[in-house]
Specification:
Elements (H helix, E strand, L loop, with lengths): L3 E2 L4 E2 L17 E10 L2 E6 L6 E6 L10 E6 L6 E8 L4 E12 L9 E6 L2 E5 L5 E3 L2 E8 L11 E2 L4 E6 L5 E11 L2 E9 L2 E6 L26 E6 L3 E11 L8 E6 L2 E10 L2 E11 L10 E6 L5 E8 L4 E13 L2 E4 L2 E3 L4 E3 L4 E2 L4 E10 L8 E2 L2 H6 L3
Parallel strand pairs: 21-31
Antiparallel strand pairs: 1-2, 3-4, 3-8, 4-5, 5-7, 6-7, 8-19, 9-10, 9-15, 10-12, 11-12, 12-14, 13-14, 15-16, 15-19, 16-17, 17-18, 20-21, 20-25, 21-22, 22-24, 23-24, 25-26, 25-30, 27-28, 28-29
Length: 392
């Protein structure tokens, strides 16, 4: 079962509509999990997509009547014990599942790495899942290196293949392909392959110098490796271990942010903001952590601690950004339009300026764009220490 959204209103398919997950090979590891709304609460779920019931993890009181059993994990802040129970799919709403399949890998292949949008029977490359808005409709840039691209879209021929800007609603699912490998003793994830080089990153917290090759010339400059690090390395230096494909629905478009053209591609952009001060002479191009970095991007740690957060960035001069626009999202609740501040792409939870907006209450989405000066657009926060580490 998948959760989808059109450009203007949410659609919650019936249990019969499901992602057709791709079978990789024998001996694969399979993990299917996600989120659903149960008795008015957002809960985690797990189980095969064609099952009649799913395992739901929640506080015991919420699972009354479904024979809840104690769960091994505890809630990190209040130490409140969790419980798990089998709940029929019919009792769940707003269900979204992510199917992850992994198998042993003996080589790093370009077609096993990247971000792909599923359009009908085809999987075409995506650069990012943020996209842009044209005439109120969220759109994404897709690329195809086949001789003949999928029919139905206005493809433009490029030096490397084809490209098209397609409605976000045309993407049935997103497929993320990774290779997990070892590089100079460090466990890394391979996220992009260009010829004989690859972009790799480590998302785990590093406490000792022995945990990462800090002095390697391939590593991107960073002020603190505890929030992860990235590097551009030679394919020959990688020892692959597992190839992984993760298939999930495409979360509804969520803004506000500034989108401008950098070269030929629309990108999320903003002037750098450090310690409350805006750098009018330096900007950043930003992509989400699970999106495909461009060849010049590196990992930037947003927050440290037990659950670090990061994103992909590269730094450009403001003059390299053409026609920046401020894109905003709104949802209609009880006939009234309310602004959206963010959507959690993992749990599909929608948040307004102050509180969470229940999925059951959302009647439609609306997107608007307006020309904006970068100095009036949301900035991209950065630490002064990071500016110094990158000699910016």
């Amino acid at each position: 079962m998948i959760l989808t959204s059109t450009g203007h209103s949410p659609t919650w398919p019936s249990p019969e509509r499901r992602i057709e997950f791709r079978v990789m090979s024998r001996g694969e590891r399979v993990d299917v999990r996600g989120w659903a709304t149960f008795r008015g609460e957002r809960v985690t779920v797990a189980g095969p997509p064609d099952a009649g019931s799913l395992s739901v993890v929640a506080v015991p009181e919420l699972l009354e009547g479904f024979d809840p059993k104690p769960n091994d994990s505890t809630y990190g802040y209040w130490r409140e014990p969790w419980a798990v129970a089998e709940v029929p799919v019919e009792a769940l709403s707003h269900l979204v599942l992510t199917d992850t399949r992994s198998r042993a890998a003996s080589a790093v292949a370009a077609d096993e790495v990247g971000l792909f949008g599923v359009i009908g029977p085809a999987a075409v490359r995506l650069g990012d899942t943020v996209g842009f808005v044209v005439d109120g409709e969220p759109r994404l840039r897709v690329e195809c290196d086949e001789v003949e691209p999928p029919v139905g879209f206005a493809w433009t021929r490029t030096a490397s293949g084809w490209r098209a800007d397609v409605p976000r609603s045309a993407i049935a699912a997103v497929e993320r392909r990774y290779i997990f490998a070892s590089w100079r003793g460090a466990k890394v994830r391979v996220v992009r392959v260009d010829g004989d080089t690859a972009i790799v990153y480590s998302e785990r917290i590093v406490y000792t110098d022995a945990s990462a090759p800090f002095e390697a010339a391939e590593m991107d400059a960073t002020d603190d490796v505890r929030a992860g690090w990235s590097a551009t390395v030679s394919l020959g230096d990688l020892e692959p271990a597992w190839a992984t494909r993760s298939t999930s629905p495409l979360v509804p478009a969520h803004f506000p942010l500034a989108v401008g053209r950098v070269g030929e591609r629309p990108e999320q952009v903003g002037l750098l903001e450090a310690d409350g001060g805006l750098h009018s002479d330096l900007a950043a191009v930003v992509r989400l952590p699970d999106d495909l970095p461009d060849p010049l991007m590196s990992l930037y740690g947003l927050h440290f601690g037990s659950r670090p957060q990061w994103e992909w960035r590269r730094y450009v001069l403001p003059v390299e950004i053409e026609a920046p626009e401020l894109v905003t999202s709104e949802v209609c609740v009880d006939g009234v339009w309310q602004p959206v501040n963010r959507i959690d792409a993992d749990s599909w939870r929608v948040f307004g300026p102050e509180d969470e907006i229940g999925l059951d209450a959302i009647e439609a989405y609306r997107y608007t764009t307006s020309t904006v000066d970068l100095e009036a657009a949301p900035g991209v926060r950065i630490r002064n220490a990071s500016l110094e580490a990158r000699e910016l």
